[in-house]
């Protein structure tokens, strides 16, 4: 049963011996609570070394869309391991990468046909930005080097990705003087913002700007803020009118999270470049993709080697990761993932609704398999996270947001436990 400890709660030797050598993410190592030792995962469950089982409410940062340890993905990786675990992508290719590139291109709209693989979402964003800047260099407009991004945006932790992330989020403040400064536009919190000021800005300064980057429909780590389909259509029009490369960062929203396979589908428009990662491999292995239109790619097609895109991660198109991604796409084709997302959306709306009447709650938002409870504040983030673990669930609030992004295969009982625990915990919060 979730949250129940076994009789033995001994700390594993590997945990005690190795903890002093590890550096944890987003953590002040002197004061951070000790991490939980995990010995097994399955379905929507995380099993700890002391025998407790936690229901995972966030699918390991939104990656494990099919649940943990899905047999089809595991078998695909095992089979690939016996053939070609990895081979460099410089001068060599392999079946899994080419098959995956073809399948992704067939799922994406219009001219999004050229797939550049990397190994993380942040790097996918870096590649997209390099594509946009070099597109203009290759077409004779080398001064177009800056980007427009948006308040509450989060695009990653590498240097270029940090530069288009809203500095007000706070996690990159210390590096503010070390990375390039682009323009972060505040379009407010309304789902359908007024873009008049952005249009005027681009009229004046489009000659300096290479592109616009946006998280379609949901700004994730920046606060689970929902945006309208109209915003994407308006940005498409603005980008076309101001000669900008439009980049959709679907690292969080891609692969079913918002209710369609890709979030942009709900807007009836498409970008010049799209970035994908997170759930691409079903939460098993690191892989990312930056996919460009024919228009963008053609600017690099030349007899001149200087116009080539000079980027190449060592583990680019790793064969094991591509095998996992192909197996994940199989599951989207064979199993009722979008129906499951629709059911989760209804359950999240129903299960989190009682929070709307609680005094500390500012708003409850649900879209697809995303549920967010926005509080006026969270006084002790570590204590709140620990309180969830005490109740048998793994929920990791960010800022002042308690959110759920569960596996699409989660059972109705597990989801009810998650939403009920959030309601109970929010009710316990002091004024």
Q: CATH class of the largest domain, anyone? A: Alpha Beta
CATH topology of the largest domain: Aspartate Aminotransferase, domain 2
In CATH, what is the homologous superfamily of the largest domain? Type I PLP-dependent aspartate aminotransferase-like (Major domain)
Overall structural class, as computed from helix and strand content, comes to alpha/beta
Write the element-wise H/E pattern from the N-terminal end onward.
HEEEHHHEHEHEHEEEHEEEHHHEEHEEH
Mean pLDDT score: 95
Form type: globular
Major sheet: size, sense and barrel closure? 7 strands, mixed
How many helices? 13
Total domains: 2
User: C-alpha Rg, in Å?
Assistant: 22 Å
Low-confidence stretches: 4-8
Question: Could you explain the architecture of this structure?
Answer:
With 431 residues, the protein is of the alpha/beta class. The chain is built from 13 helices and 16 strands. The protein folds into two domains: 13-66 and 336-428, Aspartate Aminotransferase, domain 1 (Alpha-Beta Complex); 71-334, 3-Layer(aba) Sandwich (Aspartate Aminotransferase, domain 2). The chain has helices spanning 13-18, 59-62, 71-83, 95-107, 121-138, 159-163, 196-205, 229-241, 294-298, 319-334, 337-352, 381-390, 412-428, and strands at residues 38-42, 45-48, 53-56, 112-118, 146-150, 183-185, 209-214, 218-219, 225-226, 245-249, 273-276, 288-293, 361-367, 370-375, 393-394, 401-404. Helix 3 runs antiparallel to helix 10. The two termini are 32 Å apart.
